[in-house]
Amino acid sequence: MWVLMGGGGGGRWVMVVGVGGGVMKLMKMKMVVVVGVGEMVVVLVEMVVVGVVEMGVVVVVAVVEVVVAVVEVVMVVVVVWCGGEVDLPTAMDPDLTKPWALPEEFLKRTFSLIDSDKDRNSASLVCKDWYDAERVSRRHVSIGNCYAVSPEIVAARFPGIRSVTLKGKPRFSDFNLVPEDWGADVQRWLGVFAAAYPFLEELRLKRMAVSDESLEFLAMNFDGFKALSLLSCEGFSTIGLEAIVTHCKNLTELDIQENGIDDLGGDWLSYIPENLTSLEVLNFATLNSEVSFDALESLVSRCKSLRVLKVNRKISLDQLRRLLELAPNLTELGTGSFAEDLVTSSVSELESAFGKCRDLHTLSGFWDVTLLYLPVVYPVCGNLTFLNLSYATLGAVELERILSRCKSLRRLWVLDTVRDEGLEAVGSCCPLLEELRVFPADPFDQELGVTELGFVAVSNGCPNLHYVLYFCQRMTNAAVAAVARNCPNFTHFRLCIMSPDEPDYITNEPMDEAFGAVVKTCPNLRRLSVSGRLTDLAFEYIGRHAKNLETFSVAFAGSSDSGMEYVMRGCPKLRRVEIRDCPFGDRALLSGLDRYESMRSLWMSACNVTMDGCKKLADEMPRLNVEVIKEDGSEDGVADKVYIYRTVAGPRADAPPFVVTL
């Protein structure tokens, strides 16, 4: 272990950096933990280091801020206050004032143990040696905006990448606010990767444009390719999937979720070679067409390492039983449709097949499920930690029946067909619940849905709740305040009152105090989505109290530019802001001038922003891409949709005519 010892001020410091358990043992000394990296490491070390002692254990140094808590990260620094007086030597060995100048092989080995991108990013900022050691040892890169950097820049910095996560369109594209041919084509990235990373093994794409030709290129140019995940992508068909399963001989993962795919039929599954036995993850739950069950059954039977299987609604209950009997070691399962008439013996056989899946902890699917067949999943409920019922139109009775057996549940997704009575069952049956998402079955049916009563009921029984997404037709300030009091550890609070400009339906007051209570009571809040009738007061509360907020979304709310100004100036950790249909204009837009380069992106649509305001922002901040989407081709001064993001790649070359880059 490298131990850096020194004195300063009124006592003596011992600084130790280690990996994993070695550091945790030192935690018993009840001292201060310092995490991360930054300029402080240079200043501190040059002031206090007096010697280096080698004790045979791998260690590194990194400092940025002091926190009084045990932080479970791979690389940490323990600063131990030993007390006493120590005089600094008058002449110091210059090598000892640069503790980062460690052997190259040692640095590479240390960085190879760090999986967290955030920790690696921080460590790379310490000095040139650490930067080089980090970049050559990195095997995975995650890119949150495909236009924030070019593939050439990525390839030049990281020569050994084997896994890439790449995101494209803004999130509001999920609500049809971004034109279909806006961009985010993956092909350019694949072309660069083929030359730089022929050994690429894993690609995860989200909101990217992916053609069949791109999938074929991927399959043909990366011999060792193993894992493909496509989430909310568009532009491809099952022909592209045929190319992937035909040519990727070592495929371990094929995960296809919520894509705009041209589903030409289920024959693609038959193209998987009969000698492929490596598959561990297969998810085609959201494809519509019937797949070849013979091919699926054969694949499952020979892939002994299969742990995740999520099928679509074309798979019957009897077929599901046959698959479960072949793969009892599954940890995650997405069922098919429950719309089938089974004889009693078949129901018993299906229940028995579920009972043999002792490792199952995640369950989803449940299309067309009824109370009649719900008991077949009861044998696995006791081990479930995640139950996704977002495709199942269950009522309160059905939900209570299944939740009464799910005592270990941490995550739950449901439709609002469960009503408030179903959420009362959540509160009474799931004391360990940490995440709840309630989606609308029909956003336009005001007779259905959940209210503030169900929200409060959940919070009363689930004190560990820290993530909520809640769609409802009505809400009150008092209810939200009660939820915040009951669950003060919220990190994600996303409340969507579906009727725009909806006040507290009891008092007819704005919902300002509701969100004020959330930001005052929940200091760890990182993501906040607000809705309902809000004045500038709500935004003032957010700016004053939400000091850890990173992502902020708002729709149909606010009363003046001051609201956005409060948030932009008051929330120092903001990274992403999404705004639609709000009365914010140029003054609000320009209030973030000193913030945008530290943020990932800003989206504003149907606000009061003008082209002149956008041009001024672009002039003031040349390292930002300021894009205005003008689908009607008009040359008026209105900037209806504005997308602003930081980039090191400059203006994009593939912008369509309706995207004006300023």
UniProtKB/TrEMBL annotation:
Residues 159-205 form the Transport inhibitor response domain. It comes from the Eukaryota. This is Uncharacterized protein. GO terms for biological process: SCF-dependent proteasomal ubiquitin-dependent protein catabolic process. Keywords: Membrane, Transmembrane, Transmembrane helix. The chain crosses the membrane at residues 32-53, 59-82. GO terms for cellular component: SCF ubiquitin ligase complex. Residues 102-140 form the COI1 F-box domain. SUPFAM superfamilies: RNI-like. It holds the Pfam family Transp_inhibit. InterPro entries: COI1_F-box, Leu-rich_rpt, Leu-rich_rpt_Cys-con_subtyp, LRR_dom_sf, Transp_inhibit. The keyword Metal-binding does not apply.
